[in-house]
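Priority: medium. Attachment 1 of 2:
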């Protein structure tokens, strides 16, 4: 049988085996099947193959899809974790750093506000004979607005608010030594309240950081899934058994990457 007849027979045999084999079986896991086709074809030859065909098996997957909802949930719990789940922590790390910085800032404001508050209370105890223990915030507001408990009681009684009167014979008594010290106390107390109010804005910023990170993580997950879908393509390869001068057959392989 002449060489042209051999080429035609081997080509037909390769095509028949190709179409009998499902495409799904010719994925990355079908490397041994394609190799066995070549070996079967070679085994039917009496001559040697000058240029055998080699196949490279891809052992690493192209990637898997990520859940945008799960990515967003992770970042809502801790900013940057959704980006880490998707595999793009390059942007997520900035949300994590911002989260830590905001909490440190909030803790610092809380400490400073409490320090100012205690300082104001000690100042009132020294210059207005105030007993700070067991008092509500409204009491410390009132002592800054009136020179003593008597003038305060007169003011609330004129407003027909008898329930807000303080007992001068109790620990609620106060008497400022000078108006200057009373004004100094008021400034300390107001400064403390401003610090606590600023801390509330930091809490709001922390919430915004969580939200933005969640949106970003969901967007990255969607983009990642699109990339995985584009990478899942079908590859067709053809090879020659033997040498160019003395071909002994053709092998066609179809593979799908996931």
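Attachment 2 of 2:
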């Amino acid at each position: 049988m002449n060489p042209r007849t051999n080429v035609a027979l081997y080509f037909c045999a390769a095509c028949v085996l190709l179409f009998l084999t499902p495409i799904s079986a010719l994925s990355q896991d079908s490397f041994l099947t394609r190799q066995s086709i070549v070996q079967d074809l070679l085994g039917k030859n009496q001559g040697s193959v000058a240029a055998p065909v080699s196949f490279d098996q891809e052992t690493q997957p192209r990637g898997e899809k990520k859940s945008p909802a799960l990515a967003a949930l992770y970042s809502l719990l801790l900013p940057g974790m959704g980006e880490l789940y998707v595999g793009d922590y390059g942007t997520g790390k900035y949300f994590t750093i911002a989260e830590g910085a905001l909490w440190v800032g909030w803790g610092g404001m809380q400490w400073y506000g409490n320090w100012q508050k205690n300082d104001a209370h000690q100042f009132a105890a020294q210059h207005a004979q105030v007993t700070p223990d067991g008092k509500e915030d409204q009491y410390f507001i009132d002592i800054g607005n009136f020179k003593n408990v008597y003038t305060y009681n007169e003011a609330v009684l004129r407003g027909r608010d008898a329930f807000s009167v303080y007992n001068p014979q109790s620990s609620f008594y106060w008497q400022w030594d000078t108006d200057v010290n009373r004004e100094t106390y008021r400034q300390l107390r107001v400064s403390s309240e401003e610090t606590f109010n600023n801390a509330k804005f930091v809490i709001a910023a922390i919430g915004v950081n969580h939200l933005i990170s969640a949106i970003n993580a969901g967007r990255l997950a969607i983009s990642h899934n699109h990339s995985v879908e584009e990478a899942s393509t079908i590859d067709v390869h053809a090879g020659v058994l033997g040498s160019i001068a003395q071909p002994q057959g053709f092998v066609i392989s179809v593979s799908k990457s996931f």
